[in-house]
Amino acid sequence: MTGRNATIAVLGCGLIGQSWSALFTAYGYNVVAWDPMPKRQSAMQEGIARCREQIRISPALPSKQGSFRLAETPEAAVTDAFWVQENAPESVPIKSELYFRVEAATRPDSVIASSTSSLTWSQLAVALKQSRRLITAHPFNPPHIMPLVEIYAADTGVRDDAVSFFKGLDRQPVVLSRDVVGHIANRLASALWREAVNIVAENIADVVAVDAALVHGPGLRWSVIGAHMAYHLGGGAGGIEHYLKHLGGSQERRWATLSTPKLTPDVCDRLVAGV
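User: That's the sequence. What structure does it adopt?
Assistant: Structure tokens below.
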């Protein structure tokens, strides 16, 4: 990948765009940004400054920050960019129209990375003539603080370059083997919250108890190890293999009792009141 002092285009100047721009410039990249809404453009400088106050980078890195400027069109923003970070609304037509405008204006070797949280690579790639250049690079919000970036790329070379790029920003990239709605983290979070809502809906416990149980129990464990590793440690000397053989059935019995609640007006009222 192109080194520092190179140009990155940021398309979309909302909170995600501000956060990305702060991170990129903090690590020495020059950012050119564009947004169709003048209000967002005018708030960009203030947002970047606010985010940059929260970024802590290694003393071993160059202290010189990259520059930032706004472009009048998306085409002008991407002209010199080796990397395009797209943060448009979660709409296939909107993103497709944007890709149509910028693809011809970008360098042939530039990467177009979408911050999409709900759309898949397959849905977005059809809008590009050279779809291999597209990756989904979903950050955990806000990206200037949270290290996770979930990556899917159809081209292995582009994927490997993207992993190296984000590692150079001290992010923690994880790679999906196939594209899927919600990527990894949001699917896990949605599964957990589904049962958290179900517990309230079924009158097993209230909102306060559910959140306290998570924070003071598995939340502490999950902050340092993942779900699979937690059960591996729970298996003792035999690890996950022992756990699956001897306690796998108990897991299946618990899974069978989980449910899919409906966000009825009553359930929503109880969640709101509980929070």
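The mean pLDDT is 94.
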